[in-house]
Amino acid sequence: MLDKILSIINPKALQKHIKILVIEDTEVDQRVACAAIERGGYTALKAGNGKTGLEMAREHKPNLIILDYNLPDTLGPDLCKVLKADEKTSNIPVLFLTSLTGPDNIIKCFEQGENYLAKPISVKLLLKQIDSILKDTQS
């Protein structure tokens, strides 16, 4: 009932409870993604490598994970496999962000059954993609 009242009074208030984890090692891309998330009214969490990202995903159980393709300690598709095999994180949707736009790289993202967005990051496009993914998961 409270959620319904909040959604009428201030729809963005409900979104603050939605956590999005950004696993990205490039500081500029991490800041842009987090700023976009917060502009959309969501809560941004951030990790700079795969190990920390996996720990945070297990601990915080975010509603969405935005995952860089190339991380200093792993590849995004490999981390995604681990996330999808883990009972605690298997249902969390993943959006890949990468500057690698070759067909093989894109196919690896889609083979995970996930979403893909090319860098450089467009705040507007990233927010649309986030909203779309979250809408699909709440349906």
Largest sheet: 5 strands, parallel
Q: Which regions have little confidence, pLDDT < 50, spanning 5+ residues?
A: none
Number of strands: 5
Percent helix, as a range, is 40-55%
Distance between the termini: 18 Å
Number of helices: 7
Topology:
Elements: H1 2-9, H2 11-15, E1 19-23, H3 27-39, E2 43-47, H4 50-60, E3 64-68, H5 76-85, E4 94-98, H6 103-111, E5 115-118, H7 123-138
Parallel strand pairs: 1-2, 1-3, 3-4, 4-5
Task: Please give a handful of descriptors for the protein shown.
single chain; 139 residues; alpha/beta; five-stranded parallel beta sheet; 7 helices; 5 strands; 52% helix; globular
What does this 3D model show about the protein?
This protein has 139 residues and is an alpha/beta fold. The chain has seven helices and five strands, in the order H-H-E-H-E-H-E-H-E-H-E-H. It has a five-stranded parallel sheet with strand order 2-1-3-4-5, with helices on both faces. Strand 4, helix 6 (103-111) and strand 5 form a beta-alpha-beta unit. The longest helix has 16 residues, at 123-138. It is globular, with a radius of gyration of 15 Å. The two termini are 18 Å apart. The mean pLDDT is 86.
